[in-house]
Amino acid sequence: MKLSLGLAMLLALSLAPSARAASEADYKAAYAAAEAASKEAAGMRNQWTVTVSALAAAKRAADGGDFGRAVAAAREAEALAKASIFQAVSEKEAWKAMEIR
After folding, report:
1. Is residue 76 part of a domain?
2. Alpha-carbon gap, residue 97 to 101, rounded angstroms
3. Which of 30, 41, 54, 71 could form a disulfide with 47 if both were Cys (CB 3.0 to 4.6 A apart)?
4. Rounded to the nearest 5 degrees, what angle is found at the Cα of 44, between the Cα atoms of 40 and 49?
5. Cα(101)–Cα(88) distance, integer angstroms
6. What average pLDDT does range 35-54 have in this prediction?
């Protein structure tokens, strides 16, 4: 329960709107962070498909010049990637508790 609350807070904070309009530089920074987290998750063989979709949505929004939406989608992708990393790490040893002995 405690882990779910922390994950929910992480997702909520990542989706919170910023106080100022986003720029292309904001988008590039957010996208780079999201892409790095996504690559880390992929390296752990636990990349979620919704993360890839959020990255694609961020790129489409940026290509259309809507950097506010692009930053929001990139932050969502980063949060999803971090959640998938958290899942991979926490389940790395947790499966042993489910093993029939």
Report:
1. yes
2. 10
3. 41
4. 75
5. 23
6. 96
